[in-house]
Amino acid sequence: MALKSKPFEITVTGSYSLLLLPLEIIQPFLDQNIKRVKVKASFEDKAYEFHGAFQKRNGSYYMMFGKRYQKEIGVFPNDYFQLQFFEDDSKYGVEMPEELEAVFMSDNEAFQIFESFTPGKQRGIIYGVLSYKASQTRIDKSLVLCENLKQGIKENKYLLRP
User: Fold this and answer.
1) Is residue 117 scored above 90 in pLDDT?
2) Does any domain span residue 14?
3) Does residue 1 surpass a pLDDT of 80?
4) Which of 71, 141, 146, 158 makes a 20 to 30 Å CA pair with 123?
5) Which residue spans within the chain are E strands per DSSP?
6) Is residue 81 domain-shared with residue 104, that is, in the same domain?
């Protein structure tokens, strides 16, 4: 059975959109060397799910909780809200957009190049495609990505540019 935490209350720490994570909540994940998790944030009648990572700084663990996530559930600084962690069983540590997956299915050469990248680089590329809201734009960017990969372009800032 996949690991999950109990829901707990938390608030955003400081002005950098950080969450100071209670060690007793995340220790079971750390014990299994799991640092990337699925996260469910809830506030009043709203909930939002995203992928996150535990980051250790000065002996404490934190997680980014950006303004976009705060806006999704209607949280303001000093509000307490619910958080729950789940073991991330996704292949890339983020959900692959169906548009990119479909384009990769039709272009095995580009997919093999993508698969050769580090997990962090793969996530960066996926997040780049996910940053576009319109499905047709995601398809277009995925096609550009594949062509650029096959041309040997490897820098993220150029991968989605025609």
Assistant:
1) yes
2) yes
3) no
4) 71
5) 8-10, 12-13, 18-21, 36-43, 46-53, 55-57, 60-64, 81-87
6) no
